[in-house]
From TrEMBL:
<dbReference type="GO" id="GO:0000976">
    <property type="term" value="F:transcription cis-regulatory region binding"/>
</dbReference>
<feature type="region of interest" description="Disordered">
    <location>
        <begin position="196"/>
        <end position="218"/>
    </location>
</feature>
<dbReference type="InterPro" id="IPR001647">
    <property type="entry name" value="HTH_TetR"/>
</dbReference>
<dbReference type="InterPro" id="IPR050109">
    <property type="entry name" value="HTH-type_TetR-like_transc_reg"/>
</dbReference>
<dbReference type="InterPro" id="IPR009057">
    <property type="entry name" value="Homeodomain-like_sf"/>
</dbReference>
<dbReference type="InterPro" id="IPR036271">
    <property type="entry name" value="Tet_transcr_reg_TetR-rel_C_sf"/>
</dbReference>
<keyword id="KW-0805">Transcription regulation</keyword>
<keyword id="KW-0804">Transcription</keyword>
<feature type="DNA-binding region" description="H-T-H motif">
    <location>
        <begin position="38"/>
        <end position="57"/>
    </location>
</feature>
<dbReference type="Pfam" id="PF00440">
    <property type="entry name" value="TetR_N"/>
</dbReference>
<dbReference type="InterPro" id="IPR049445">
    <property type="entry name" value="TetR_SbtR-like_C"/>
</dbReference>
<keyword id="KW-0238">DNA-binding</keyword>
<dbReference type="GO" id="GO:0003700">
    <property type="term" value="F:DNA-binding transcription factor activity"/>
</dbReference>
<feature type="domain" description="HTH tetR-type">
    <location>
        <begin position="16"/>
        <end position="75"/>
    </location>
</feature>
<dbReference type="Pfam" id="PF21597">
    <property type="entry name" value="TetR_C_43"/>
</dbReference>
<protein>
    <submittedName>
        <fullName>AcrR family transcriptional regulator</fullName>
    </submittedName>
</protein>
Length: 218
């Protein structure tokens, strides 16, 4: 009987190790390549069989959700906090700064976040929650006279797509460029000019030759 229990414990331990290895491998691949990495590639890098991977995660969405649960929860918590901030402009700025900074660090997280806005059944409720909270924050900031009245909640996707383009910059400059870009945006979005009194982050050291080199590489 003890032998049987030991064997069962061994199987459970192997399954737990496989699950951890799959999640850690997927996280690294998603970070580097985005969430379109095939499940077969993840299985190969995790040194498990494809059947084992699908036993643990029956769908790609299940694996993506597991990998980014902590980050999506953090983003959701920040959105909740921003929506309830007594100063809605402060909450709006913090949310944009966090989201754009996270986007530069992890390509996969950005795609997972954007997937919340995709028309897929498994994301519809979460998407509605995110859209409702962000719209509430935008409305409060506009009613307070801090956010320009023509800003639309859907502009968030435009911001993320534009900021995501900075990933093509040399890695040592991308985060500094993003911070300056977001500061420019917040000055543009400010309705009362308050943001204009804040100095911009330092300009990057990039020259036009960096853009030319990037064009030659593509």
């Amino acid at each position: 009987m003890n032998t049987q229990r030991s064997g069962e414990d061994g199987l459970r331990s192997d399954a737990a190790r496989n699950r951890v290895r799959i999640v850690e491998t997927a996280r690294e691949l998603f970070r580097a390549r985005g969430i379109d990495v095939p499940m077969s590639t993840i299985a190969r890098h995790a040194d498990v069989g494809v059947a084992t991977l699908f036993r643990r995660f029956p769908t790609k969405e299940a694996l993506v959700t597991e990998v980014f649960t902590e980050q999506i929860a953090r983003c959701q918590a920040l959105l909740d906090e921003a929506a309830d901030d007594p100063d809605p402009w402060h909450g709006f700025c913090r949310l944009l700064e966090f989201t754009c900074a996270e986007q530069l660090k992890d390509r996969g997280f950005t795609e997972a976040f954007l997937a919340l806005f995709a028309d897929r059944v498994d994301y519809r409720k979460r998407r509605r929650d995110v859209e409702t909270l962000f719209a509430k924050l935008v409305q409060r900031a506009q009613e307070a006279g801090r956010l320009r009245p023509d800003f639309a909640p859907g502009d968030l996707i435009m911001i993320l797509l534009a900021n995501g383009g900075l990933r093509d910059a040399p890695p040592e400059h991308a985060e500094d460029l993003s911070r300056r870009f977001v500061a420019y945006l917040l000055q543009t979005f400010s309705a009362d000019g308050a943001a204009e009194r804040e100095p911009l982050p330092p300009a990057g050291a990039l020259g036009l030759h960096h853009a030319q080199r990037r064009g030659e590489d593509t």
